[in-house]
Specification:
Order of helices and strands of chain B: EHEHHEHHEHEEEHHH
Largest sheet of chain A: 8 strands, parallel, barrel
Order of helices and strands of chain A: EHEHEHEHHEHEHEHEH
Low-confidence stretches of chain B: none
Oligomer: heterodimer
Structural class of chain B: alpha/beta
Shape of chain A: globular
Mean pLDDT of chain A: 85
Radius of gyration of chain B: 21 Å
Bound molecules: iron/sulfur cluster
Largest sheet of chain B: 4 strands, parallel
Low-confidence stretches of chain A: 144-153
Helix content of chain B: 25-40%
Shape of chain B: elongated
Distance between the termini of chain B: 23 Å
Largest interface: A-B, 41 and 32 residues
Strand order of the largest sheet of chain B: 3-2-4-5
Chain lengths: ~260, ~210
């Protein structure tokens, strides 16, 4: 089972320093433990462009799987499709989508929340669209097109094959319905934000041959969990495929403290 | 009922600064229920503007200032006063304000903020229930509006932020998808529970202007 750091793209820090810190994090951690870091998630929030950062990290760490994480709060369908086209052309095929924390819960209280499209609709479009044209056709169709005809002449034009993760809650029957819809539209990875109240959901997702990742914040270590090992053991016990740890700062973080 | 709240009197006084002769129109329908545009509020507004040295040319409460037919009828009562009026303070929703502006061609000053379509529990207690999205989904959502009652306006299910019951954004309210699911389950609407909505079509909101 993997431990996967999730890091927001930096705000003011020089991105070159940030990349150096990441390299230490990736190399240092895999030296010290039996658990390798083979994956890293770069989350777009307010800050340096996360896709650009994913590309830079991927160039420097060809053996590490890089995942771009984006929310529905900040981008409308046009901007999200632009992201998909960019990721596709850069060969970055791992993406995580979430609805995202509402602006009133952030420092940008007055910002207009976008939520033009939700996680299920975008998942469906990502999985059903094989080309840029399909993206456009599917953006407002009542019956999303499931068109498998691929333009073989232009690889960049072909938009399919994203490895799609979705952040979900998993504690209520309404969440279970959402999980079923996401499985129906083809989401690959499910990121659950809690260890508790989710056994049924995890079992269901695993039965459908999809991956489950437990998501925690590094600040929970020492509070909710005595140690990272305890959190890891719990995730392992749940048969999760990975433990995602949101790193608040790449400089001083739980992984480097080990 | 269309919910409005009162504007700060200072904003109204500032907007009226250049105008000496002022008429005041109230709304005897929604704004009256919300206590923003009833006859009591019209009287209070007249007092406040008089204190600022303004000359009040008329005060009137119109049943539905948003209804051009009613407005045309009622405006006849103040036709003469209108001639000597520089600006009209309107205590109604934005629709009433613009309808009056369109008919009288006078400077209008709104005295309220327009919020949303709401249910009246008691006078002074209102619950928003509809944003007028132009594509009503209540037939498929267990009779509750997730566009209005989910702060993210989601269509296809709860976000990752609820705590099992309460909403991530408004911690005093339940996540509306829990109610939606419970209602649909109760009505045996399995097909609606499984329904996946496509993204909203905002093009239909580009409405024909006829002002
Ligand atoms: S779906 Fe909601 S916002 Fe749209 S018309 Fe119906 S009640 Fe109003
Ligand atoms: S918790 Fe529920 S009601 Fe609140 S923002 Fe999320 S989905 Fe909407």
């Amino acid at each position: 089972m993997n431990i996967i750091p999730e890091i927001e793209s930096p705000l003011s820090e020089n991105y070159i320093d940030f990349l150096k810190e990441l390299k230490i994090l990736l190399n240092g951690f895999s030296r010290n433990r039996t658990i390798d870091i083979k994956n890293i998630i770069i989350e777009q929030n307010f800050g340096f462009n996360a896709i650009l950062l994913c590309k830079l990290i991927s160039d420097e760490n060809p053996d590490t799987a890089i995942t771009y994480s984006v929310n529905m709060r900040d981008k409308n369908r046009i901007a999200l499709f632009s992201d998909l086209i960019t990721l596709n052309q850069l060969g970055l095929k791992n993406i995580i989508i979430s609805e995202g924390l509402h602006p009133v819960k952030t420092v940008f209280h007055s910002a207009k929340p976008v939520y033009d499209i939700d996680v299920i609709a975008l998942s469906s479009i990502i999985k059903k669209s094989k080309s840029i044209n399909h993206l456009i056709e599917n953006n407002s169709n009542n019956d999303l097109l499931d068109n498998n005809v691929v333009n073989t002449e232009d690889a960049a034009y072909n938009i399919g094959n994203f490895n799609l993760g979705v952040k979900i809650a998993a504690s209520t029957p309404a969440d279970m319905v959402k999980i079923k819809k996401l499985i129906a539209v083809g989401a690959d990875n499910f990121i659950i934000n809690s260890f508790t109240d989710n056994i049924g959901a995890i079992e269901y997702i695993k039965k459908e041959h999809k991956n489950v990742f437990i998501h925690i914040n590094e600040l929970e270590i020492g509070k909710t969990f005595n140690s990272l090992d305890e959190a890891y053991a719990k995730a392992l016990n749940l048969k999760a495929d990975g433990l995602i740890i949101k790193i608040v700062s790449p400089k001083i973080n739980i992984l480097k403290k080990l | 009922m269309f919910l409005t709240t009162r504007k700060d009197i200072k904003e109204i006084i500032d907007a009226a600064e250049k105008y000496q002769n002022i008429g005041i129109v109230g709304c005897a329908s929604c704004a009256s229920i919300c206590l923003t545009g009833g006859s009591a509020q019209v009287g209070e507004m007249a007092q406040a503007l008089k204190k600022e040295g303004k000359n009040i040319t008329f005060t009137i409460s119109i049943d539905e200032p948003c209804d051009m037919r009613v407005l045309k009828e009622d405006i006849r009562f103040i036709e003469d006063n209108l001639e000597h009026t520089d600006a009209i303070v309107v205590l109604s929703c934005g629709t009433g304000v613009q309808t009056i502006s369109g008919l009288t061609k006078k400077k209008v000053i709104t005295g309220t903020n327009s919020k949303y379509i709401a249910k009246t529990e008691h006078i002074g207690e209102y619950s928003p229930l509809c944003r007028g999205c132009d594509e009503c989904r209540l037939n498929f959502t267990g009779g509750v509006c997730t566009i209005t009652l989910c702060p993210k306006g989601l269509l296809n299910g709860p976000c990752e932020g609820h705590n099992g019951i309460k909403c991530e954004v408004d911690e005093e309210a339940n996540c509306i998808f829990m109610t939606s699911y419970a209602n649909m389950k109760n009505f045996g609407e399995e097909e609606n529970i499984a329904r996946i909505f496509s993204p909203r079509d905002y093009s239909i909101k580009i409405i024909k202007k006829n002002i």
